[in-house]
Write a sequence for this structure.
């Protein structure tokens, strides 16, 4: 496949890359070397560059540029309501909307926004604007650009997770126009965290990050088997000695499920007009049927794999669950 721009998602456990062109995709999920990323922080930039370059070569990823999902630990995303103003005024005011979230000099951050809605008064004059706004340290962008440049990739686009899914949802709605007003709950079960994002159509509505993920399963298995969690992950991936059915593993599934349902129940309580019916699983944890089955049993919502939302030619791909964000980034270009 020939595509100039690759979607990239660098997680805590895996590097995910995606190429997308004319409905066809190539997806790659490669396990990161031990201790290369710790709590979202890339420990060795040179080693990460070499690893990305190696994965590109092994999987024949010929892209010269990339679109990157911003790490949750370094980016801030907000829904913002402001009086109607010019672009210059907005550029001046936007940093103040993040004053309770960022540390240090506000000028050391990049800010960007997308207009959700412009509200007009009875005379047809703009009165208020609803925005999606994001902030990220300039140093973070510089570091990632350097890592990717050494790997042979020019950083072209960066987006927070919340906005990355929009391209995937727009594509699905284009193929299913009657779903333009449907509510979607996407649950991305990652290595260290589980991210819950709710959309109405392709418009982001709410999100929550839980400090639970696949690493908790690895840790539980490691304690039972008396092995290192990094080694335990290989047991989990292959379900060696049926470790996914251990009582300790089941306890982790239940804990994650309970926390997810708390979030969804709170959303329903806070939004009494909501008609949220559908949950879609992605992330590496979505590949663990024992975990997704446990969540399914604890909710009255319908649950699906992310294949349901993906382009038909991509649905069923082995790495789709893990590579969903990378694919969404590639689809948006």
């Amino acid at each position: 496949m020939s595509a100039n721009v690759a979607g990239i998602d660098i997680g805590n456990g895996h590097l995910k890359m995606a190429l997308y062109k004319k409905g066809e995709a190539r997806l790659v999920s490669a396990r990161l070397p031990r201790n290369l990323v710790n709590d979202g922080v890339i420990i060795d930039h040179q080693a990460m560059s070499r690893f990305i370059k190696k994965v590109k070569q092994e999987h024949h990823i010929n892209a010269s540029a990339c679109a990157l999902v911003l790490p949750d630990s370094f980016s801030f995303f907000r829904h913002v309501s402001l009086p109607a103003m010019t672009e210059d005024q907005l550029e001046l005011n936007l940093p103040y909307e993040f004053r309770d979230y960022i540390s240090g000099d506000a000028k050391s951050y990049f800010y960007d926004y997308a207009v959700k809605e412009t509200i007009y008064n009875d005379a047809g004059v703009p009165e208020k604007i609803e925005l999606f706004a994001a902030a990220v340290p300039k140093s973070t962008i510089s570091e990632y650009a350097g890592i990717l440049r050494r790997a042979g990739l020019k950083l072209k686009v960066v987006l927070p997770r919340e906005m990355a899914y929009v391209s995937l949802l727009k594509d699905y709605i284009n193929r299913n126009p009657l779903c333009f007003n449907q509510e979607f709950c996407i649950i991305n079960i990652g290595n260290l965290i589980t991210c819950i994002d709710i959309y109405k159509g392709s418009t982001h509505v709410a999100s929550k990050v839980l400090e639970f993920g696949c690493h908790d399963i690895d840790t539980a298995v490691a304690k039972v088997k008396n092995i290192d969690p990094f080694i335990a992950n290989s047991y989990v991936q292959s379900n060696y000695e049926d470790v996914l059915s251990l009582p300790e593993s089941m306890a982790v599934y239940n804990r994650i499920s309970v926390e997810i349902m708390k979030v969804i129940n709170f959303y329903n309580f806070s939004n009494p007009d909501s008609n949220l019916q559908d949950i879609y699983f992605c992330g590496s944890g979505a590949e663990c049927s024992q975990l997704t089955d446990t969540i399914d049993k604890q909710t009255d919502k319908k649950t699906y794999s992310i294949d349901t939302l993906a382009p038909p030619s991509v649905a069923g791909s082995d790495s789709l669950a893990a590579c969903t964000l990378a694919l969404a980034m590639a689809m948006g270009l």
